[in-house]
Amino acid sequence: SQQGEEDPQALSIQEGENATMNCSYKTSINNLQWYRQNSGRGLVHLILIRSNEREKHSGRLRVTLDTSKKSSSLLITASRAADTASYFCATDDSGNTPLVFGKGTRLSVIA
Amino acid sequence: DGGITQSPKYLFRKEGQNVTLSCEQNLNHDAMYWYRQDPGQGLRLIYYSQIVNDFQKGDIAEGYSVSREKKESFPLTVTSAQKNPTAFYLCASSINSGQPQHFGDGTRLSIL
Lengths: 111, 112
Fold this sequence. Notes:
The structure holds two protein chains of two kinds.
Chain A: E1 5-7, E2 10-14, E3 19-24, E4 31-37, E5 43-50, E6 55-58, E7 61-66, E8 71-76, E9 85-92, E10 100-101, E11 105-110
Parallel strand pairs in A: 2-11
Antiparallel strand pairs in A: 1-3, 3-8, 4-5, 4-9, 6-7, 7-8, 9-10, 9-11
Chain B: E1 4-7, E2 10-13, E3 19-25, E4 31-37, E5 43-51, E6 54-57, E7 64-66, E8 76-78, E9 87-94, E10 102-103, E11 107-111
Parallel strand pairs in B: 2-11
Antiparallel strand pairs in B: 1-3, 3-8, 4-5, 4-9, 5-6, 7-8, 9-10, 9-11
């Protein structure tokens, strides 16, 4: 079952620009999480936003959540070549079932 | 350092052979998961376990089997019934369902 759907599928930007990725989901959630995956590696958890939160920051990351539109966005400011990776959103539906991951956005940051 | 370890990094399977992928964690997490990732795709859940001696099928369990005899260990067996096993396999753990997951660095399985 695929809950989150990221958009765009791929994104290419210049170093120093901001990168925005979106995630849409279908059912009500307890929380939404964003992960990063470097090529050939496991995923790394970036940030968790609860259903009663609207915005959260962590360093150069800013996540927003709009439960009325069932969507979230991840903004990476002042991107660096090292930010090149795939980014996935994952939703927690009830707290007693595993997270459901989207298909990801492939971000390329060109130096 | 606490973490989650998958081995081997690369594995080759002959036709008709079962192979077992190892996953060990020292994070004291109750929940563990196995995912399959195909090129350019997201993660698909194979099996998960929320507690020792209990596990549940995910979306694509056919052709796979697991055990959870110890909290730290959640091995995955890819059986000969899995006709298209070539993929990148990821193991993860979390304190409980819904909490952030910690991932291993994966095992890439190929067919000889």
